[in-house]
Amino acid sequence: MMELTRKGEYAIRGIVYLAKQSPGKVILVSEVAEATGVPQTFLAKIFQSFAKLGLVNSFRGTGGGFLLGRPAAKITLRQVVEAVEGPIIPNRCLSDEGNCGRTSECTVHPVWRRIQEEIAAILDGVTLEDLAKGKKSL
Amino acid sequence: MMELTRKGEYAIRGIVYLAKQSPGKVILVSEVAEATGVPQTFLAKIFQSFAKLGLVNSFRGTGGGFLLGRPAAKITLRQVVEAVEGPIIPNRCLSDEGNCGRTSECTVHPVWRRIQEEIAAILDGVTLEDLAKGKKSL
DNA sequence: GGTAAAAAAGACAAAAACGGTCTTAAAGGG
DNA sequence: CCCTTTAAGACCGTTTTTGTCTTTTTTACC
C-alpha cells in the first residue's frame, strides 16, 4: 500500500538528473530519458507538468530543452512528488473538509491526519540539492 | 497519492465495528455490512483474509458469524491495514532487498525508508481498542 | 523565408488494479 | 435433511496506470 507510482519515480529521477547539471545548462528530454532509463515520451509529459508549476523552465526549438526553474536547494521532494501525484492524501476523509460522511464516528481520522503530516514533513525536508549531492540526511 | 483503497477503509470500519461489540459476541457479516455501509459480499471477502491471519475468528452455519481473534487492545491498525493492503511500501526500492536496480544512485532510497518507518510506527501505535473507544490519541 | 529541432498538447490504447458480484462448496445447527 | 452462514474462487465492468502517436507551436539557424 501507499506506493509511489512509476510516474512519481520517473519524475524524481528526471528532475534529479537536471539538478545534477551545472546551473543554467539546458538539457534535452531525450538525454534525461536515456540517462535515467525512463520512456522519453512519458518523461516529456512529466516535465510539462513541472514546467507549468515553474519547477523547470523549458525552451523550444533548436537548442531547446529543460533546466531547473529555481536553484535545486529551493525545490523540495514534496513539490516534485505532488506535482505529478497530487496532494498527499492517505485517506479520503482528508481530501475535502473532513468529508467523511461519517465524520463523528470516524475515529481513524486523526491517525490519517498525522500520517499525512509526517509524510509531508519528511518530503519537505529533502531538497533536490540534497538528492543531487547524495547527502546522507537520514 | 499514497491513498488507502476502499478495501482498506472497509476493512477498518468492519473490524472496528467488531471491536465495539461485547467480547465473545458473534456477529453476522450482514449486520456489520449494514451498520458500516459496506457491500456485504465485499466485506465477507475482507473478513476472510482477517480470519486467515487470526485477526478474527469465524463460525459457519446457524448462529455463526465473526468476532475478534484476540482482544481489541492486541490488534493494531497496522495489522488490519496490512492484512488487506499488503505491506507498507512507499516505493519499489523498498520491496525486495533494496532492489532498485540503480541502487548506488538511488539517493531517495533513505527518504522512502524513513517514510515507511514513520507510517508503520504510527499505525503500530493505534489499537482497535483505541479506535473502538474513540480515544483521542493525537 | 524555409527548414530543422525541440517542446506542447491532446488523442489514443494496452494492461493492470480497483471494486465489486455471482456461484458453488463446505460446515454446523436443529 | 434442510437451513443458515462462512469459504473459495470465478467473473466482470470501471478506472487508473503507463505509456504511444500525431499534430501543433515555438525557436534557432541558414
Key phrases:
homodimer; 138 residues; mainly alpha; Arc Repressor Mutant, subunit A; two-stranded antiparallel ribbon; 6 helices; 49% helix; elongated; DNA-binding
What structural class do the secondary elements of chain A suggest? mainly alpha
Low-confidence stretches of chain A: none
* Principal-axis shape of chain A: elongated
Largest interface: A-B, 43 and 43 residues
What oligomeric state best describes the polypeptide chains here? homodimer
Strands side by side in the biggest sheet of chain A: 1-2
Report the β-strand fraction of chain A as a percent range: 5-15%
Describe the overall structure.
The structure is a homodimer of 138-residue chains. Chain A is mainly α and 138 residues long. Chain A has a single domain (6-133), classed as Winged helix-like DNA-binding domain superfamily/Winged helix DNA-binding domain (Arc Repressor Mutant, subunit A, Orthogonal Bundle), CATH 1.10.10. Helix content of chain A is 49%, strand content 6%. The first copy, chain A, has helices spanning 6-20, 29-36, 40-53, 77-85, 109-124, 128-133, and strands at 56-59, 65-68. In chain A, strands 1-2 form a two-stranded antiparallel ribbon. In chain A, strand 1 and strand 2 form a beta hairpin. The radius of gyration of chain A is 17 Å and the shape is elongated. Chain A starts with 5 loop residues before the first helix and ends in a 5-residue tail after the last helix. The A-B interface holds A 1-5, 8-9, 12, 16, 37, 77, 81-82, 85-92, 102, 107-108, 110-115, 118-119, 122-123, 126, 130-132, 134-138 and B 1-5, 8-9, 12, 16, 37, 77, 81-82, 85-92, 102, 107-108, 110-115, 118-119, 122-123, 126, 130-132, 134-138. The first copy, chain A, binds a DNA duplex (30 and 30 nucleotides) through helix 3.
